[in-house]
Design goal:
This protein has 183 residues and is an alpha+beta fold. It is built from one helix and nine strands.
Length: 183
């Protein structure tokens, strides 16, 4: 008898939510505005991840001006076009190294599918996952808005300046030249 009563109570406990759901009104939901357009995207940064590194030389305008409204006056990637703005030519003396790769190459994967979170430091020396980097002296002024303990970056190869990587800040859309310092 106790088993039968226990079974009835168990069935009632599990059936109660189903009965309560059927008692609710089944009025049609309020209509929603439908849009097939993509949500608006920031012109630069805001989580945009470029699928590749720079392919052409696109210097910043003279006088430290943004290349267009809504863009920073710093090297950045245009989220609408994927263009790397502010990438200098191979002859730029600011990125010449007498001993490229003197600390070796970063030993892990780089590119759009590999996001790294900065764990500490500053432009002179920052790190993630036990790997250390330094921002090129010519680029230090471009990273003053970076969060050195939490920003996500993506490393891309710099095709024009041996010994340097390009560290792209996902939040800001700004990139700087960085040197791998080792582990």
């Amino acid at each position: 008898m106790k088993r039968i009563i226990g079974s009835i109570v168990a069935v009632a406990v599990f059936a109660l939510p189903a009965v309560a759901q059927h008692a609710q009104s089944h009025a049609a939901p309020a209509p929603r505005a439908q849009s097939h357009a993509a949500p608006p995207r920031q012109a630069v940064g805001g989580g945009y991840i470029p699928s590749h590194g720079p392919r052409e030389h696109t210097p910043l305008p003279k006088g430290g001006q943004p290349d267009q409204p809504g863009h920073p006056a710093a090297p950045h990637v245009d989220a609408a076009t994927g263009r790397w703005i502010g990438h200098t030519s191979a002859g730029d003396a600011n990125y010449h190294l007498d001993h490229p790769w003197e600390h070796g190459h970063f030993p892990y994967a780089i590119g759009a599918n590999h996001i790294w979170r900065i764990e500490g430091g500053g432009p002179g020396r920052f790190w993630f996952n036990g790997f250390y980097f330094s921002v090129a002296p010519a680029d230090v002024g471009y990273c003053d808005g970076w969060l050195w303990d939490s920003d996500d970056i993506i490393l891309y190869p710099d095709p024009d300046h041996p010994g340097w990587y390009l560290a792209y800040n996902v939040r800001l859309g700004i990139y700087v030249h960085v040197m791998f310092l080792g582990q």
